[in-house]
């Protein structure tokens, strides 16, 4: 697990390191410059002509120091200062003095097109207003030229808290960020501008990071060790029971995909509760599944309701929604689950559309508590895509898309349910922590991929994992399987069943 921080948290880490621990800021700047150079040496040629384009803040000081080190290594490295040098920070002024003493050329105006490599050190992570004026023109010039671009800490013009482009931003080939990765380098569109991100250790102590109590994180391959352990002395009942309430007339695919994904993710028994129409299809396509059916026209009958409640008590975790439609019968099913389920429940797809109209759980949105009108029981996990989330929040899809991180955090603030807000960067959050997923690819934007994810989450929940961790790890595994499948099939040809077939190879690496 790796933490992600926003601009204020990174500034606090920096200040704590210098003011409380006593590591001088200039020492950190030197180590930052060495980290920049280390990455550059792997990706440039001796014949390259290098220009460090520097602002007057400490980010600019990092760039000046990097240019000076490269000059000492016999590279052609110059500095372009943007802004009033007299207003530079103390550390950047010191770096400029050192650079000039080492015969580094420092310009206030230069033809950027003459250089093959750019060190982008105009703005750091503190940018909070749109990039305008001379900075905008310089970024336009950098982006228009075929330069190899190395951004310092974050591409200039990207907001560190959310990845937004502040009018214009540098398109980097590499971003060398310091100490802890930044939220804005992981979220889109910032991620696309950052190129390859290198998180460099420049000496921020673990104590300083702990001081800011970061609550946002992402997973890496080593986090597969979080998968639930399987007992040697066991049977199919040991590995839990997943109930998939899914499918409707002419809609059997969603329940099949969810059920098979649950089996592939460790569930010992999977029962599909669906309409009678789907019996032969499920039994032929997935003979491992247990099948139970219900009559949509009888869901107001007391005996039928009691029978469904019994199915709920059988399960260790429950899925409701994939392919069930938005009929009155589906609405009754959702009410039964919400009222009687005592185990973790994943609400997905059509059930989310039905949920949006239930005012005991979803109140009308308001301006004073923006994006915070959802309140669900603590055993609930919801997995909306952008359109489904906009229905739940009673807002426009664009509001969700443009404020993805804020929406996810606000929706669960002070609540106990878990949200997996699905997008190119899926965000999983509860009232305390937030996971941002970095696995997966655009080939997974295909019908049924969400049904596969739902099945994986249900299996992880059923195996006893806590809801936030189960959901976050499932999203990560789902993305890894998608990446594995894309290598075999290509992102153009990827379909949902390919993701399921890739699950064994991903999970094998841990088992």
Can you tell me about this structure?
This protein has 511 residues and is an alpha/beta fold. Helix content is 41%, strand content 16%. The chain contains 19 helices and 19 strands. The strands form two sheets. It has a twelve-stranded mixed sheet, sandwiched between helices. The model has no long low-confidence stretch (mean pLDDT 95).
Helix share, percent = 40-55%
Task: Report the C-alpha radius of gyration, rounded.
Answer: 26 Å
Shape descriptor: elongated
CATH class of the largest domain: Alpha Beta
Overall number of structural domains: 2
Based on the structure given, which CATH architecture of the largest domain is correct?
3-Layer(aba) Sandwich
The CATH topology of the largest domain is Rossmann fold
Low-pLDDT segments: none
What is the straight-line distance between the termini? Answer: 19 Å
- Characterize the biggest β-sheet: 12 strands, mixed
Discrete helix count? 19
Structural class: alpha/beta
Oligomeric composition of the shown chains = single chain
Side-by-side strand order of the widest sheet: 8-1-10-19-18-17-16-15-14-11-12-13
SS elements, strand count: 19
Mean pLDDT: 95
CATH superfamily of the largest domain: YjeF N-terminal domain
Work out the strand percent: 15-25%
